[in-house]
Amino acid sequence: MLIVRLLLTVVLATAAGKLIAKLKLPSILGWLIAGMIFGPHGFSIMNQEILDAVWYQSLIHILECAVGLMIGTELVWRKIKKSGKPIIITTFTQSLGTFFIVTLTFGIVFYADRNGVFSSFCQHY
Question: Distance (Å, rounded) from C-alpha 27 to C-alpha 71?
């Protein structure tokens, strides 16, 4: 019965992937949505008993590699090369911006804590 549930889920996930692909979105999105719907927190076709099985965990590791390869084939290197400079600039500015905002926030919190701002505020309320 466990194998039937697994096969049913795979068929439904494949169908969801093809449906999502018709909307010009990545197939993996359909697979993820199917996993949420048919998993243990949805309709529970794939219940916790299956998810905890050793054979299932081994199968998952193999399939994770296959999905990673499939995602990798969707990358088009010419497009990435053409968009390379904006991608690098965006990544760099987002990384540095996040770093500076987080550093500034923690600096303010530590400065306020060191000078007793929080303790006087907590005593007041």
Answer: 9
pTM value? Answer: 0.48
Provide the token pair at 76: 């088009």
Same domain, 41 and 98: no
DSSP tag of 76: -
* Listed ranges 5-19, 43-57, 111-125; the one with the highest mean pLDDT: 5-19
**In terms of domains, do 70 and 37 share one?**
yes
* 40 close to 47: Cβ distance less than 8 angstroms: yes
CB atoms inside a 10 Å sphere around CB 19: 14
Q: Which domain holds residue 93?
A: 80-124
In this structure, the answer to whether residues 47 and 6 fall within a common structural domain is: yes
Cα 6 from chain centroid?
Answer: 22
Reference 21, options 31, 10, 12; nearest CA is 31
pLDDT given at position 67 = 79
